[in-house]
Design brief:
The chain is an all-alpha fold. 87% of the residues lie in helices and 0% in strands. The longest helix is centred in the middle third of the chain and has 36 residues.
């Protein structure tokens, strides 16, 4: 019963903290992630709230980096479409694209280092083991969602 109450409170807190600027689907995904992590790690209420903040910051950073990557890739495509190619401009864009890709790749490690500060060693171990399981669940959910969207689009 207390765990159910904790989940209900966390879901409400995540929804309120996410604010109106977060799309509903993203809000649901964040809530799902927080609840799964809290359950898998057996976090106290205080640590659950701290972990929620860690995960929120990581998600916001990921969204920022993906947006930046999309913008740089758009500029790269436009630059490649011009003749002659401005080599200096292209070199800068390539460096920017590489930096964004590096930052995206480092994000899970940065997130773990931040979580490390609030988790016990046992919880850290559980988080490391849980990450792969959660990645599989997310992939499956995205595949189901893609299949559902494809079926829906096909019916139109």
């Amino acid at each position: 019963m207390p765990r159910t109450l904790l989940f209900a409170c966390l879901a409400g807190l995540v929804a309120v903290a996410a604010g109106a600027d977060v799309p509903t689907g993203r809000d649901r995904a964040r809530t799902f992630l927080v609840l799964r992590v809290v359950d898998a790690l057996g976090l106290s209420d205080e640590k659950a709230l701290q972990m929620r903040d860690v995960l929120r910051r990581a998600d916001e950073r990921r969204l920022e980096l993906v947006s930046k990557r999309d913008g740089v890739e758009k500029q790269l495509r436009a630059s490649l479409a011009t003749a002659p190619v401005d080599e200096a401009k292209m070199a800068g864009l390539v460096a920017d694209a590489h930096a964004v890709q590096r930052d995206l790749a480092e994000l899970p490690e940065r997130t773990f280092r931040e979580a490390e500060k609030i988790l016990t060693v046992e919880q850290q171990a559980k988080l490391l083991l849980f990450r792969r399981e959660l990645q599989g669940e997310v992939r499956q959910a995205l595949q189901r969602r893609g299949a559902t969207a494809a079926t829906h689009d096909h019916r139109r």
